[in-house]
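In this section we walk through a basic example: taking a raw amino acid sequence and producing a predicted 3D structure, encoded as discrete structure tokens. The instruction is simple. Fold the sequence below.
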Amino acid sequence: MSFTVLEIANAIGAEAVGDITLKISSVAEPASAVEDQLAIAMTKKFISDISRGSARVALLDKENDWQSLGLDAAILPRRPRHALAGITHHFDQGQGLPTGVHTTAIIDPTAQIGKNVSIGAYTVVMSGATVGDNSFIGPLCVIGVDTFIDHDAFLRDHVTIGARVKIGCRFIAQPGVRIGGDGFSYVTPEVSAIENVRKTLGKQQDGEEQSYCRIHSLGAVCLGNDIELGANSTIDNGTIRDTLIGDGCKFDNLTHIGHNVTMGRNCLICGQSGVAGSSRIGNNVVLGGQSGVSDNIFVGDNVISGGGTKILANVPAGSVVLGYPATKMNKQLESYKNIRRLPKLFQEVTALKRAVFDSLKGN
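The resulting token sequence is shown next.
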């Protein structure tokens, strides 16, 4: 598989300069690039590495003088970082998995399978399920009873989708995704110690030991269009209504969405983040890695939380938060700075106390 410089530039809407007939077989970082590879040089560091490799063509910012870098050609997009999305799509070789329905797949006779669908080895499609046109279902997947998956889905291996889940078009699930497990929802016959602690913020009343009764999940999960879920991500069923995820949301690996959560459009949920049950997340929200959102709260549109943030109360739209508990990022950073100053402050206070004590002794 190879493309000319001009073909690549046209595919991503960029300008091609120099010898645009040169053939490119793959992409590489500049220091290791060989003659038939496109060097990805979007920063000063990578640009300086071009001389260490033997690439003849590079992806550059338009402000760079490609000829002075010893290149024979260059691709000059308006926004190189965005162009990288198009280039990686262009050269993606996929997983090399076979097309068609594998002989070991188990497909219920009542399931509806669209046109041009591939289903991998040992995958199970249960009764009443629908798989849309041009979808790829990898090996060892399970698609539950009456589940609906729209067209152009791509499920890697070991993806499990529970009963009655609804999924929009162009869905992508990385290995180990689990959608439609029951929510973590239990109740005790009498008021529990946990409920008392939430009311009193710390005081636990004495009482008899109680067992937990399971609250079943009668709802399912509904995902919009263009959603991507990272490896080993999980989304729980709703208790009465469905858990809802809006169009365009992207989840990193090991993320968890609890029961009854409602999430808006185009949210970015980074690795090891979790949203507890019945919380509402607005549009264009970014949760940095290992962020946590408490249950039954609201996070407004365009909120960004830094990595490790724990959101315990409602967050207004447009806020940028950090820390545990979450506060405005600039205030949290100032607090961190003040904490680092404490040892010096203690030293100064000790010195002042000593000076005062010495002066009193002298009198």
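Looking at the output, two observations stand out. The chain has a mean pLDDT of 93. The chain has five helices and 39 strands. In the next section we compare this with other chains.
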